[in-house]
């Protein structure tokens, strides 16, 4: 068994009139997460929204805005949604017929004014001003798979402290961290992959 997690960062790119933040959250919470938990390989899931610590006198919104100028926090603030999925065994993702890759990723959206005009002019289909689209047409999505190195709970071992982790620091440089991100262009879905190991990185 090789336990691990999947991290999925998301940024909405759709026009709010077509697919709003509330619609996105409703789809994620009531459809997508239940679909994932119904598979055999995901033990638990959680969603988060980026919330940088705000110094005294500075609102959370202003703190997030100021973080945009910091390259170390740019990715977090521009991809504000984070989903975490816990896997008992990350090797499940490579098994034939793995349910993770067949989970539906389509949502119902409101037809854009341009599409509605085309339908009215007889140049397109009209379906009560509702359309089905891939989530990749509505949001930028990045996915990373992380294999667990070591886990511990507070109070699990007395006196462990830093010594408990010292033996694992040297292992980190040899681990392989794959990441994926998706881009839709001219009707084609592009999947980009990046693998980092031993201080080196390969992207394609």
Brief digest:
It is built from 5 helices and 9 strands; from the N terminus they run E-H-E-H-H-E-E-H-E-E-H-E-E-E. The chain is of the alpha+beta class and 204 residues long. The strands form 2 sheets. Strands 2-3-1-6-7-8-9 form a 7-stranded antiparallel β-sheet, with helices on one face. Strands 4-5 form a two-stranded antiparallel sheet.
Task: Please characterize this protein's 3D structure.
This protein has helices at 21-37, 60-67, 74-78, 113-120, 161-169; strands at residues 4-12, 44-49, 81-87, 106-110, 130-134, 139-147, 177-185, 188-197, 200-203. With 204 residues, it is an alpha+beta fold. It has two domains: 4-148; 156-204, no CATH class. The protein has a seven-stranded antiparallel sheet, with helices on one face. Strands 4-5 form a two-stranded antiparallel ribbon. β7 (177-185) and β8 form a beta hairpin. The relative contact order is 0.18. This is EthD domain-containing protein.
Radius of gyration from the alpha-carbon trace, in angstroms: 21 Å
> What letter string, H or E per element, gives the SSE order?
EHEHHEEHEEHEEE
What's the quaternary structure here? single chain
Number of strands: 9
> Major β-sheet, in short?
7 strands, antiparallel
Trace the largest sheet across and list its strands. 2-3-1-6-7-8-9
Q: Could you give the distance between the termini?
A: 29 Å
Structural class, please? alpha+beta
Let me know the average pLDDT: 75
Task: Give the uncertain stretches in residue-range form.
Answer: 167-177, 196-200
SS field, number of helical segments:
5
Number of separate structural domains:
2
Helix content: 10-25%
Shape: flat
β-sheet strand percentage: 25-35%
């Amino acid at each position: 068994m090789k336990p691990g997690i999947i991290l999925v960062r998301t940024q909405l790119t759709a026009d709010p009139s077509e697919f709003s933040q509330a619609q996105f959250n409703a789809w994620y919470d009531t459809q997508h997460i239940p679909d994932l938990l119904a598979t055999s390989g995901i033990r638990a899931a959680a969603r988060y929204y980026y919330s940088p610590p705000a110094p005294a006198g500075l609102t959370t919104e202003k703190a997030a805005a100021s973080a945009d100028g910091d390259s170390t926090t740019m990715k977090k603030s521009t991809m504000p949604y984070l989903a975490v999925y816990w896997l008992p065994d990350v090797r499940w993702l490579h098994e034939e017929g793995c349910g993770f890759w067949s989970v539906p990723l389509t949502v119902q959206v409101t037809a854009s004014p341009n599409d509605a005009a085309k339908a009215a002019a007889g140049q397109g289909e009209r379906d009560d001003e509702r359309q089905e689209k891939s989530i990749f047409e509505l949001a930028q999505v990045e996915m990373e798979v992380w294999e667990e190195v070591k886990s511990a709970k507070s109070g699990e071992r007395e006196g462990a402290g830093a010594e408990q982790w010292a033996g694992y620091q040297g292992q980190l440089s040899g681990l392989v961290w794959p990441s994926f991100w998706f881009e839709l262009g001219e009707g084609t879905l592009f999947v980009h992959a990046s693998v980092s190991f031993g201080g080196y990185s390969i992207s394609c």
